[in-house]
Design goal:
The structure is a single chain. The chain is α/β, with parallel strands linked by helices and 306 residues long. 46% of the residues lie in helices and 10% in strands. It has twelve helices and five strands. It has helices at 43-71, 88-95, 114-117, 123-126, 148-151, 161-164, 169-188, 202-214, 224-230, 233-247, 262-278, 289-304, and strands at residues 75-82, 104-108, 135-139, 191-199, 254-258. A five-stranded parallel sheet has the order 2-3-1-4-5, sandwiched between helices.
């Protein structure tokens, strides 16, 4: 089984959710500047550091992905979750900008289709898991079935009535166990699972929503549904805390990223992904002596061409 020990930047060494303790998001500042080690830097200096980390991590990720794709040994599943406006799309765009599109895929999940409703809740996610050598990013994920569905149990209308009527703590605990068992199965089969919660404050979400209203070019990013979901902020916070507490494991850790500052958040995510993939036991495939001899013969033939 893959055991992951994310090597985070020193300033953020405490943002991996504990495996043995109840997660309370209040214990993890959404504002990265509240981490004591940042006090001695100006905002400009912090951003320069973050941009440097992002640039170096993208270069490292480019090399690591090349070896990952060539070796066809492991797959990588990256899970991105967060409140609305947390910055999932921007994180994907900036962190993965240097990777080979041939070996990277982004999966988004909308309201389940009729076919998806006809299966168990993990079915549609299993269909799009990474192949060996591939990186797949879940922009939202199987966790919606213990987040949005927990906040809005009416979404489970396709389930047998006796199950829906029993939305007890035991019902959700069983779902957490199903998710952890599934992720353990993936780790045992060579899938590196990294999960990021982009943690923003309620005030920061308000600022970003107002920005989307005020800037015409961003109007398309906001809908009445976003504002409605904001009214469930406390319920979503509790749902995230419960999900992280019950599913952060060494084989599939949750990284709680302070995301009020997008540049810092992207640098952290890039750093974790690059180092985690680079720490895998992957190398370029070895070429046999016979193959080397064949290549040398091919060289001689090419060089002899008129």
């Amino acid at each position: 089984m893959l055991i992951i020990e994310p090597k985070l930047p020193g300033k953020f060494s405490e943002i991996t959710a504990r495996f043995d303790k109840k997660t309370r998001l209040d214990d993890y500042p959404a504002n990265a500047y509240k981490y004591a080690e940042l006090d001695k830097y100006s905002k400009k200096e912090v951003h320069e550091i973050a941009e440097d980390v992002l640039d170096k991590s993208r270069l490292s990720l480019e090399t690591a992905q090349d070896k990952l794709w060539a070796s066809k040994k492991y797959g990588v599943l990256i899970v991105l979750q967060g409140m609305d406006t947390a910055g999932k799309d921007g994180t994907i765009r900036h962190v993965m900008s240097g990777v080979n599109p041939q070996g990277c895929r982004v999966q988004c999940f909308k309201t389940p289709t009729t076919e998806e409703h006809a299966h168990d809740f993990l079915w549609r996610y299993g269909k799009v898991l990474p192949e060996r050598g591939e990186i797949v990013i879940f922009n939202r994920s199987h966790y919606e079935d213990v987040l949005a569905v927990k906040v809005h149990p009416e979404y489970m209308e396709a389930l047998p009535k006796e199950l829906v009527d029993d939305c007890s703590p035991e019902f959700w605990q069983n779902r957490y166990q199903d998710i952890s068992a599934w992720e353990r199965h993936l780790a045992r089969n060579g899938v590196l699972v990294l999960k990021f919660f982009l943690h923003i404050s309620k005030n920061e979400q308000k600022r970003r929503l107002l920005e989307r209203i005020d800037i015409e070019e961003k109007n398309w990013k906001i809908s009445p549904a976003d504002l409605k979901e904001r009214t469930f902020w406390d319920q979503y916070t509790t749902a995230f805390e419960d999900a992280i507490t019950n599913t952060s494991r060494m084989f599939a850790p949750w990284i709680i990223v302070p995301a009020n500052d997008k540049k810092i958040a992207r640098a952290i995510v890039a750093d974790v992904i690059a180092k985690a993939i680079d720490n895998l036991d992957i190398e370029y495939p070895e070429v046999s002596q016979a193959q080397k001899d064949s290549l040398q013969e091919a060289r001689r033939q090419l060089e002899s061409e008129q």
